[in-house]
Amino acid sequence: MTETTSQRFKQNAHAALADADLQRSLGVLETNFIARRKFVADKLPEFDALRDAARDIKNHTLAHLDLYLEEYESRVVAQGGHVHYAATAADARALVLDICRKLNTATVTKGKSMIAEEVGLNDFLSEHGITPIETDLGEYIIQLRHEMPSHIIAPAVHLSKAQVEADFRRVHTQLAPDRDLTQPEKLLAEARAILREKFLTADVGITGANFLIAETGTSIIVTNEGNGDLTQTLPRAHIVLTSIEKLVPTLEDAAQLLRVLARSATGQEMSVYTTLSTGPRRDGDPDGPREYHVILLDNGRSAMLAGEFRDMLRCIRCGACMNHCPVYQAVGGHAYGWVYPGPMGAVLTPSLIGIDKAGQLPNASTFCGRCEEVCPVRIPLPKLMRFWREREFERHLSPAVVRSGLTLWAFFARRPWLYGLVTHLAARALALLGRAQGRFGWLPLASGWTRDRDFPAPEGATFQALWRGRQ
Amino acid sequence: MSDRELVLGSIRQALGVTGREAPRRKVVADRLEGHPTGIVPERGQLEPKTRIALLAEMIAAAAGSVAQVTDLAAVPGAVADFLRRFNLPLSVRRGHDARLAALPWQLEGALEVTVGASDGQQLASVSHAFGAVAETGTLVLTSGADNPTTLNFLPDNHIVVVDVNDVVGDFETIVARLRRHFGERQLPRLVNLITGPSRSADIEQTLILGAHGPRRLHVILVGEVRR
After folding, report:
1. How many domains does chain B fold into?
2. Contact (Cβ atoms closer than 8 angstroms) between residue A411 and residue A398
């Protein structure tokens, strides 16, 4: 895993804006994710009502999380599986390593798991002599590049096919150097052939989970490639590396959530493979893993239950918020500097790694509200980002220039007559000065604005004055 | 303190509960026992004939193909037709499912049928579905010796036989049937919900079929609706 750079969001964002390859790659978000989501959402009249239902199910589960976890655990154990709790990322890593060592594991195949990214599993396993192999095509590509995913459901969305081709030629040196890799189909076929071999020889398979069902002790994964299924079916043991907030009570509840997940994520009615896994291989089963382990990560989530960030624990990781975010669309996922990008990352990352490191993320929003508008579980993301901004200010973590600016503004805002007078004078003065061109290329104290664009000259009256005039 | 006590304790502290409150426990027990039905889309609430038509339409929309035959005896022919259409070797692998075992495979003399799980060497497989959901064109397969899971994922071509009487309108109906078949709070090791063939759009968002699973998914709908 690469280092955390959330504290350098601004520098990251500048670099991203200047990266022509990245900007070209990000262009697909609008046409693909946004248009497709709208198309399938419009086709289902009950979609918005289902979003309410999804929100309510998650709220209900979170309010009874301790009890549903106990119920879930008892069902997994009854089916011959094992449940392990991990309070921290380090605990989760140690649990995975312990299971792998007991099975003399040389290689591990991995289905896509954001929790594995969160705990930094790949580097840890490599350091301990176990080879982790990502099998989701996007994850496989970024593993070759030693990068973090730049999107939670499309990890390699920041890359062009030419970049992928270059990586494949660099790493797959056993193949003919003059082979044709100009088409995405050829790249996929090459990855498929290489990974097929890995699937068949891996000792342990690790997947995440989209949902856990308390009623039956079931974990659900949702994929399009089928890599998660090969990962969990072929090796001797299946480890589900997941977190405590993935729980839902019943199969009926899971059905409600599945109806909003794929539509919000990829704009599909249903993803290709939705797989319900309950325990290890049964008597008479000709295939499937002999061992089934679930690792339930907390890593700061239980603490989120107590305050205003409980809403964030409803998140089902569809990625709609980032697809629709003008900031994400402009800078991509890596600028956010950790595992979770976009609006959901701007709320979750400070909870998980600290507001001191991730304070810039909740500030990287225009509060346009599109993320909340499309969220399938109706998380009030702008409100939660605002909570973080307040905490950051309270803890004196905001930059000095922001603090002194706010103090100055507060001085006037508390004295409405003075505020009115000063803005009136400023508007008049700027209107006079800017009369010729109607705009300013430079203004004192506003270089942050005027460096990249002109500041329009006011026409003479303030908004408040115009408002009074119309009453 | 174990991590289990640590995590559960931390959750309870955050929620301000002990975990022993009888009303809370009753809410959870009632929910698990009653498993209330949520919002069920109108889309699937159809008469059997139109429901089956919707299933076929949704499977096609997910890039799968569909054939319909009136009785089981016609299934081997439909399997062979599919293989010939794509110039595939006349060979399929199936599990021990009694419904598949009873088919008159001998009617297709050139068709080789082997039995068992897949080790990755087979190009085509045949499974019998537990059911199908018209709402989204989703096939429901359950694990076990009858229909090994590996047959769903390793061969390049997956053929799935569905009895038209097992086609339901929505997921809630399938969930009720699974519960009736396997018992309250029980499921087989795997329930695979499959909607179209495997795909990836991870390279420049270009959709390509056949990522790690089958490139083709062919559904054979069998029988006539029982009155």
Report:
1. 2
2. no
Could you give all domains of chain A from N- to C-terminal order, each with its CATH number?
A: 6-10+18-301 (3.40.50.10420), 317-400 (no CATH), 405-470 (no CATH)
Contacts of A138 in chain B (CB under 8 A): 200, 202
Q: Answer whether B217's CB lies under 8 Å from B160's CB.
A: yes
Asked whether the beta carbons of residue B41 and residue A195 sit closer than 8 angstroms, the reply is no
In the prediction, which pLDDT does B227 show? 63
For A87, the closest of B6, B41, B197 (CB atoms) is B6
Q: Taking CA atoms, what residue in A is nearest to B194?
A: A273
B227 lies in some domain: no
| Statement to judge: residues B48 and B129 lie in one domain | yes
Domain that residue B2 falls in: 1-36
Q: Which residues of B touch A214 (CB under 8 A)?
A: 32
Residues A280, A289: contact at Cβ < 8 Å?
yes
Please identify which residue in the block is written with the tokens 């000709």. A286
Judgement on whether residues B16 and B76 belong to the same structural domain of the protein: no
Residues B129 and B210 in one domain: yes
Compute, in degrees rounded to 10, the torsion defined by CA atoms B81, B191, B170, B33: 160
Burial grade of A435 (CB within 10 A; 0-12, 13-18, 19 or more): exposed
Q: How far is B169 from chain A (nearest CA, A)?
A: 13
B63 and B21 housed in the same domain: no
What residues of A are in contact with residue B2 (Cβ under 8 Å)? 85
Chain B residues inside the 8 Å CB shell of A137: 200, 202-203, 211
Q: What is the DSSP letter of A310?
A: G
Q: Taking Cα atoms as reference points, which of A276, A320, A327, A380 lies closest to residue A55?
A: A380
Among candidates A91, A154, A276 on the partner chain, residue whose Cβ is nearest the Cβ of B202: A154
Structure tokens at A6: 């959330």
Which string of DSSP letters, residue by residue, matches A294-347?
A: EEEE-TTHHHHTTSGGGGGGG-----HHHHT-HHHHHH-SGGG-SSS-HHHHHH
Residues of chain B found within 8 Å of residue A252, distances taken between Cβ atoms: 35-38, 172, 175
Picking from B11, B190, B212, the nearest residue to A226 by CB comes out as B212
C-alpha distances out from residue A274 to A151, A174, A299, Å: 20, 35, 27
A218 forms beta bridges with A213
| Contact: B213, A273; criterion CB under 8 Å | yes
- Domain co-membership, B95 together with B196: yes
Q: Which of A91, A137, A304 sits opposite B202 (nearest CB)?
A: A137
How far apart CA A67 and CA A122 sit, in angstroms, is 32
> Cβ of A395: how many Cβ atoms within 10 Å?
11
**Predicted TM-score (pTM) of this structure:** 0.94
Q: Tokens for B53?
A: 């038509």
Per-residue pLDDT of chain A (471 residues; tens, 9 = 90+): 468 999 999 999 999 999 999 999 898 887 789 999 999 999 999 999 999 999 999 999 999 999 999 999 999 999 999 999 999 999 999 999 999 999 999 999 999 999 999 999 999 999 999 999 999 999 999 999 999 999 999 999 999 999 999 999 999 999 999 999 999 999 999 999 999 999 999 999 999 999 999 999 999 999 999 999 999 999 999 999 999 999 999 999 999 999 999 999 999 999 999 999 999 999 999 999 999 999 999 999 999 999 999 999 999 999 999 999 999 999 999 999 999 999 999 999 999 999 999 999 999 999 999 999 999 999 999 999 999 999 998 888 888 888 888 899 999 999 999 998 999 998 898 888 888 888 888 888 788 888 888 888 888 788 888 888 888
Taking only the tens place, the pLDDT of each residue in B169-214 is 999 999 999 999 999 999 999 999 999 999 998 888 888 999 999 9
Can you read off the two tokens belonging to residue B65?
Answer: 């193909």
Cross-chain residue pair B201–A32, CB shorter than 8 Å: yes
B88 and B183: one domain?
yes
